[in-house]
Amino acid sequence: MNKEPQGLENLFPYLEAHLDIHATDTVITQFKGGYSNLTFLIHTPEKDWVLRRPPLGLRIAKGHDMVREYRILEALQKAGYNKVPKPVLCCEDESVIGAPFFIMEKVDGLILRNKIPADLDLGPGFFHQLSINTLDGLLELHQLEMEQSGLAKMGKPEGYVERQVIGWSERYLHAKSHELTEMERTSRWLLENMPKIEFSGFIHNDYKYDNLVLESPGNPNIKAVLDWEMATVGDPLMDLGTSLAYWAEPDDPVILKLFNLTHFPGNFTRQEAIQYYASKSPLPSDNMLFYYAFGLFKVGVIAQQIFKRYSLGFAKDERFAGLIHVVEACGKKAMKSIETEKI
Question: Element (H or E) spanning 68, and its range?
Fold first, then answer.
């Protein structure tokens, strides 16, 4: 058996007791590529499992609440949303690995990161259908039944927009490391331009291509949606705005094209994505500039938080050193969109 990754040294007695998984024929490896919570593959001869735990060191808000994420997966299944991995086990005892964690079944399929794999030929037809499937999946999520499933207990929709704008502005100031004028200007604009009417639904809050498990390179149907750490009850248009912030186009700054493959031929443009969503949703789309600007600001703050963790030595991944440039690009893109009124 390979040496367990850092922080999982005492895991096997727990796995043996609860899942009959034994150290002698099990290999645990960490999935690479994530920027937040840590995800590990537990490979056994019979079956593969996935373990999720908070990052090592500094903790930030409820996005690292593993018990909550586990409950969300349970409630989503109860609500009939079948695009989630099956939750298996939740451990709140921090003495096992130093933090709460949960285990879910592994869903096999294609996950698109920031580059198309060299051995795959994904053409415009693939990305066109993926755009449609992605938005259909988001629409399905936003229209779920929430009361009987228990999803309604996962958030407070009243005042959601205001809490988010104020909360993310405060998080930015708390994690601030550089003077980035456009980020602070965007924060002020958001505070001054919050919509007076808000809507309610269950939202993912980080819905983008690299959180989707697809059927295969020949079939972009969505088998599962991953990373529910920030999911809650709130305004679906805020969720769409965050997805649009990641929905890079060919003319966008290069650094903003590192997180999604939406800039390849065949993908919807952001405006096409808005029009498609609006065609299948009862929600108005006339104020999408606000939600898009908020999405960019939030992405910038997330990058700033991770950069701060890196600068304090809590995270060692060298990719994090460049995230300050993502923060700057998000602020500039948001202000440009506000000033030109173009998404």
Answer: helix 66-78
- Shared-domain flag, residues 78 and 198: no
Any domain includes 226: yes
Give bridge partners of residue 49 from the DSSP assignment: 42, 105
Q: Are residues 62 and 142 both part of a single domain? A: no
What is the DSSP pairing of strand 201-203 with strand 219-225? unpaired
Q: Indicate whether 243 and 284 sit together in one domain.
A: yes
Q: What secondary structure letter does DSSP report for 212?
A: E
**Residue for token digits 């809050």?**
205
Per-residue pLDDT of 57-94, as tens digits, reads 545 444 468 999 999 999 999 999 999 999 999 999 99
Q: Supply 25's token pair.
A: 């024929």
Domain harbouring 182, CATH code: 3.90.1200.10
Show the tokens assigned to 61.
């808000």
Q: Name residues whose C-beta falls within 8 Å of residue 296's C-beta, 6 or more positions apart in sequence.
A: 186, 245, 330, 331, 333, 334, 337
| pLDDT tens-digit series, residues 166-222 | 999 999 999 999 999 999 999 999 999 999 999 999 999 999 999 999 999 999 999
Q: Which helix (H) or strand (E) segment is 129 a member of?
A: helix 124-142
Please name every residue paired with 101 in a beta bridge, in sequence order, or none if there are none. Answer: 91
Which range marks the domain in which residue 34 is found? 12-105
The distance of Cα 313 from the centroid of its chain, to the nearest Å, equals 23
Please count the structural domains in the chain.
Answer: 2
First to last CA, the chain: 51
